C-alpha cells in the first residue's frame, strides 16, 4: 500500500529536534513496519502562532497551490500515486490545507493521526484555520488519537466509529537498560529530558525548579538532577534553578545528547521527573519507562496513558508545586527501596503496549479496512 504522509506542524526532516518531529518519524516507521510504502508528500509548515488573519489566508493559498502541484506530479507519474493520504498532528494553529484537496481529487481515503478539535476557536483570531481543521476532520475516514483526553472533543465532529486510540509508542528495545547501578540513598539520581523554550516547557521547568528548591529548604538534599535538553530558553531555565538556590553541585545541564547518550544517562538514573504542563503525552516519559525508570509527572493530557499512577510511577495535579515537591520528597525518602520495582513495571508495560510493532498492527488493520471500505463504497456509488 502506498501512503502519502504529511506533517503540517513540522516536517520529519526538520533540523530542530522535538517530540513532534519524533512522533512523525515514529509513525512513518510504524507504517513501514506494517509493510506500507511511505512518501513524504509535502513539507509546508502551516503553523500560524499569532492568529494573524492575513498569514492564515496566505497559508491557505499556498497550500492550495501545493496541492495542485502534488496532483500534477501524481498524474504525470513523477511520484507514486497513493492509496491513502495520512496527515499527522492537526490542530487550529496548524491545519492541513493540502491533504483534503488531494484526497478528494484522487478519490482516496483521508486519514489523520494526533488531531485536536477546539470548539472555542470557532470565533476569534484562528476561526479560519479552525474551520479548515473541522472540515478536514469531518472528511477523515479514520482519526488515530494518541491522547484519550482529545477524544471527547473529537467526537463532536467525527463519528465514533472513525475514532481509534493509538497507544503512544517507541522503539522499546532501543531504550532497554540491561544493568543499572544499585540505588545510593545518599544521592538519588534524578533526570529529566525536555527542550528549553518559552511557554509550557519553561513553565514546567519553573515548577520543577521550585519543587527542588522547596526540598532544599526542608533539608532534603540527598539528590542530584541531570537535565537533558537545550533551546532558546536555556538561559532562562538555568536562571530558574539559580533562583531556587540549586547550585552546580545539585544539577547538571547536559544540553542536547544523542539517543545513545540519553539512554546511558537514563541507565544511570533512579527517577525521571517532569511536571508536564499541557503535555500531550510525553515521548520522553515513555522512553524513560522503556529504560526501566519510574516516572514522577504532572497529570496532564495523555500522560496517564503512559504513566500508571502507583504502578509505573506517580502522577500529581499538573502545575502544583507543593504536590510535586511532596511526592518527590516521599519518592526520595520513603519509596527509594521500591524505585527499581516500579521501574521494572514501567519497562514491562512499555514492552506490552507501546512498541512500534503494536502500533503497526493497529495502523495496518485499520487503514487496510478503510481502503477496502472506501473502494466498496465508491463501487456501490458507481453502480447506482
Overview of the molecule:
The chain is α/β, with parallel strands linked by helices. It is built from 13 helices and twelve strands. A six-stranded parallel β-sheet has the order 2-1-3-4-5-6, sandwiched between helices. It has a six-stranded parallel β-sheet with strand order 9-8-7-10-11-12, sandwiched between helices.
What's the structural blueprint in terms of helices and strands?
Layout (H helix, E strand, L loop, with lengths): L1 E5 L12 H15 L3 E6 L10 H24 L7 E7 L8 H8 L3 E6 L11 H13 L2 E4 L5 H4 L8 E3 L6 H4 L12 E6 L6 H18 L5 E6 L5 H10 L7 E5 L3 H9 L3 E4 L8 H8 L4 E4 L14 E4 L4 H13 L5 H15 L2 H28 L1
Brief characterization of the structure:
The chain is of the alpha/beta class and 384 residues long. It has helices at 19-33, 53-76, 99-106, 127-139, 151-154, 172-175, 200-217, 234-243, 259-267, 283-290, 321-333, 339-353, 356-383, and strands spanning 2-6, 37-42, 84-90, 110-115, 142-145, 163-165, 188-193, 223-228, 251-255, 271-274, 295-298, 313-316. The protein is built from 13 helices and twelve strands.
